[in-house]
Amino acid sequence: MRLFPGGIASLSGGLLLSMLAGAWEGAPAGEPTPCGPTVAGMACIPAGEFIRGADRGPRDQRPRERVFVSAFWMDLYEVTAAEFQECVQARACRPDHPNYKNFSAPRQPMSGVSWFGAAEYCRFRGKRLPTEAEWEKAARTTDGRRYPWGNEPATCERAVIKEGEPNGCGRGTPWEVGSRPPNPYGLFDMAGNQWEWVADWYSESYAACGEACRGRDPRGPCGGKSPCPGHHERVVRGGSWYWEGDQCTTTTRRAHTPQNRPFHHFGFRCAKDATPAVRGPGQDGGPREND
Ligand SMILES: [Ca+2]
Q1: Would residue 180 be called left, alpha or beta, if left means φ above 0 and alpha means ψ between -120 and 50 degrees?
Q2: In this model, does residue 201 exceed pLDDT 60?
Q3: The whole model's pTM is what?
């Protein structure tokens, strides 16, 4: 079993989680995991409940409650500018691009993508956007923590955020992906660096969303499908290089039009259904309806 550096760094945050996540993420190709045989560049997030939302702070994060999420795969990193370009070159993605010249280094996160462009990219790779619940569980693990690393405040040692001037921990831009330690699942930049689109329509609170945001594998209003009367914005998560640390909590939600109008430098990462042919003991995360 390989323990990645972040796993060691997060011992206080959950040794067992770190070890298990490290085992699955670093397992040899084809090795069984609770999500099926390993997938390169992705971590297995095992099935089970987690604590979603918060009872304090902005209303749209309320209430704090338990939600069940089936096993799934999550990209270790934000999708990079170079990876997105491959999709544009293949004419599988619209030519979304950042508005600033110093945002397009190959391993900087893709910035300035619409929700549609993000969804097209994930399809191009045989993946899909994570649901909002999947994203939050992947960022937060199962113990209700406020940040991917635990409850300690956000600093530039833990995430690429605004901490003094210039923003982006002194660079004025996002950094290359993976510049900070991963969380216990092995995922990088779930706090900060670039905002990340998720699949769901935005709702003003989980309480207002009702049953569509509760229970088992919630997909939000209209199950995420279009059109969705009364809903015109999707969700971005995780804060960014531009914002202070209180915006990069695991529960922070931001709404924006899927067309990305007005323009913002949002990014994303992809998820993938578990392949349940090989299941771990006690896993009940079977196949789900595809998007
Ligand atoms: Ca991020």
Answers
A1: beta
A2: yes
A3: 0.87
